[in-house]
Amino acid sequence: MSGAGKSHWTRKLAEAGFRAISIDDRIEEKLKPELSAGGYRGIGGVAAWMGWPDQPEYRDPNRISCQRNGIHARGPG
Q: Is 0.90 surpassed by the pTM of this model?
C-alpha cells in the first residue's frame, strides 16, 4: 500500500487528538539487535535486511511477523 496516504492520515488524526502508533518503529525496535549487527537502520534498513524473495538470503516475512515479535495493533483503550 505504498503511497496510499497512510502517513498523511496518521498525522492528521494525531493532530485531531488521536493516538498515533508507528508499527514500522515497533518492528524496527524488535529487530534492532539483528539490524544493528548488519549495519541497518530505519524502515528502509528493515527492507534491505529482509532482501528480495528471489535472493537466497531472503528472510521469510513469517519469521518477522508482527505477532511473532510481540507487536500487536490495538484499538482504543
A: no
